[in-house]
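ok here's Arginase, seq below lol
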Amino acid sequence: MTTARHVTLIGAPTDIGAGARGASMGPEALRVAGLAEALRAHGVDVLDRGNLAGPSNPWLPPTDGYRHLDEVTAWNRSVHDAVHAALGDGRMPILLGGDHCLGLGSISAVARHCRETGKKLRVLWLDAHADFNTSKLTPSGNIHGMPVACLCGHGPQQLIEIGGHIPAIDPKWIRQIGIRSVDEGEKRFVHEVGLEVFDMRYIDEMGMRHTMELALATMDANTHLHVSFDVDFLDPDIAPGVGTTIPGGPTYREAQLCMEMIADTGRMASLDVMELNPALDVRNKTALVAVDLIESLFGKSTLMRK
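and the structure came out like this:
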């Protein structure tokens, strides 16, 4: 696949859907950690489009079950347009978040591109959280807990229609990995729609290799693989710089294996890097780990075998 060698970085500096401020500084922290330079060292052509613009965070309580709905919609529309344009140019978009509500704009754009080009879509959602809440299920109204539900057609009209097709994706296209924090009502909803979830207990019992073999199974040459990487997927010991740290995530080696197995497929064609919060980080440690893992998605490997 050629697109993997041509990457467009798209910064989305907002914490509009989050419960803590600071994810708006994530794109710059990834740049400071040397993301573009690291990718170029692997022979990747990198075009950094800079940052998208959007409304600032008014930091208000929820209205009718949602916080900042209009602002979240505006940000997701510009993310959708930028990601869709990059794919149209034959390049691989890497969205630098920003909180995970932006996964809605990104993945709806990828799904639209797949419909236009006749490709199948597979989404890997690497996260501590299922992000399958609705306004009825969560009192906080923080939309970064809702993007997967919105993508599957469960959410406010202005969000679910962004990609021009409702629902944007079928739940069967998603594999969630590393999940360890799910609200009670959300858990029932996840089971109802049949989302495939490899939670931390599954990874503990079966190992990361078996987990990834299943998550990556049945893809073919016509599959577009999208990776949505929430940095809180990682154990907080190695990635403290996130707004919602949940202990017991994948270790550094488990995360590396996850990324290396994704790279081995040669199918990754778009990527989100979300929820990095430098305000809560220690000397940009989390951004450096994220860049290291992204390098593995592009074929950096510790393997000595031929």
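fwiw DSSP finds ten helices and eight strands in the chain. kinda neat tbh
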